[in-house]
Amino acid sequence: MRAALIVCLLAAMARFEATIAAPDAGIGHATIATQDAGNADASVPDAAVADAPSIDAARVDAAAEPEPAPTLRPIHGSVGGGGMLLWTGHDNDRFRFEVEFDIEPRSRLGAFVAWRAFDPDHKGLLLAGGVLEAGAARPRLVVDLHGDVGVDLDLIAPVVGGGIRTTIMIWGPLGVALDSGAYVVIDGVDNVRVVLGTSLSPVVRW
Prior knowledge:
By secondary structure, the protein is an alpha+beta fold. The chain has one helix spanning 2-64, and strands at 76-90, 93-104, 109-118, 125-137, 141-152, 157-171, 174-186, 192-205.
């Protein structure tokens, strides 16, 4: 009987010790897991710090890259010649000729020279001045405004005027230009006259 009681007590003590040891092991495992997690979290800032210099270097390289140079406007211009109708001509003296050359060096502003309203019997008007590209739908349409100063070669008198020139491209650099202008010939105080004309000319434009 005593032996049976002793065996029961020993079994109870062994079970009690096992019960106490189990929570301690769980706490140990939890502590180890917490430490591992902490170490893993600590490694993330280290990686971010390691990548920070490369990010800064990339930003410096991007800032050091030069900005692309602005695109320069091409040099535009035209040359051509054709017939001219003088609205202020007398009787059958209405049809003349003209030639013109203009250039716009990398801007909408340019210059021109022109010989207008000449024929075998008339020396016409020798003019030069400025030209402004007022509008364009390249490569098919260009509208220029021009201001003219020069001389009437028949009267040897000063001339001032201006007009509008519309160029329509047909094929490649070839087109036609319609030019309408008004010119004042100052031949003394009492002989000021106005010349109105419209010309149609085949042109080469670039």
